[in-house]
Amino acid sequence: MTTSSRAGRRGVGRLGLVGLCLLLGAATGASAQATRVEPAEFRCPSVLGVGIDTGRIYCDVLIGEEVADGIIVVIPPHRGPATVTFALHGRHTYSEDEVARGRGYARYLVSTVVATTELVLSRPMVLAEFRSEADLADRIGGGAGPGGVKAVAPVATEGIRVTVEEDVTEISIVGIELDVQRRDGREQFTSTGRPIAVISDVQVEYRAR
């Protein structure tokens, strides 16, 4: 075998290896592109505001009797199941004066439901306790309080994950009940239209069609 022949074979081997790497890279890239994770489009009937620390949009969860009463999350066209994730928070009205007088404690137990028009998908709950300002998950801008923040703020964070089937195009997050325990007693709220929790960071993971 001549030197030129050996060199030619080595060249072909290198080209073959490069081609294989390119093919593997393309396959990996295609696989990675097949699954998308992105902020979800959602329709919020009551926007609380934008977080000072996180920049997140916070949306009130209202008690409702129908799917239409809730926060509607739009699911893009997808192949196979898709997954919706969001953060569920308690909803607290902060009073510096009450905290200073030792009356700021509150414990919230929130019950919600995630559903389509035909099926209940999940029943998320969040348990949140407030003792001091450090317990707030964020502060909301646009208020009349010190620093331009609202008195209402999210407290505690429960990560929620809901799987939806291929034919589902939207889901609804609806409030069911709020149980509040304070130092001076306990209250339960079930009246339609009352804000009882807050959600933020709504994301959808799916394989595009």
Description:
The protein contains two helices and 13 strands, in the order αββββββαβββββββ. With 209 residues, it is an alpha+beta fold. It folds into two domains: 1-37; 40-207, no CATH class. Strands 2, 5, 7, 8, 9, 11 and 12 form a seven-stranded antiparallel sheet that branches. Strands 1, 3, 4, 6, 10 and 13 form a six-stranded antiparallel sheet that branches. A hairpin with a 6-residue loop joins strand 3 (47-50) and strand 4. It is globular, with a radius of gyration of 25 Å. Mean pLDDT is 88; it is low at 1-32.
On the 0 to 100 scale, the average pLDDT is 88
Instruction: Please compute the radius of gyration using only Cα atoms.
Output: 25 Å
Number of helices: 2
- Please give the share of residues in helix: 10-25%
Number of domains: 2
β-strand number: 13
User: What does the main sheet amount to?
Assistant: 7 strands, antiparallel
Helix and strand element order: HEEEEEEHEEEEEEE
Structural class: alpha+beta
Quote the distance from N terminus to C terminus: 53 Å
The portion of residues forming beta strands comes to over 45%
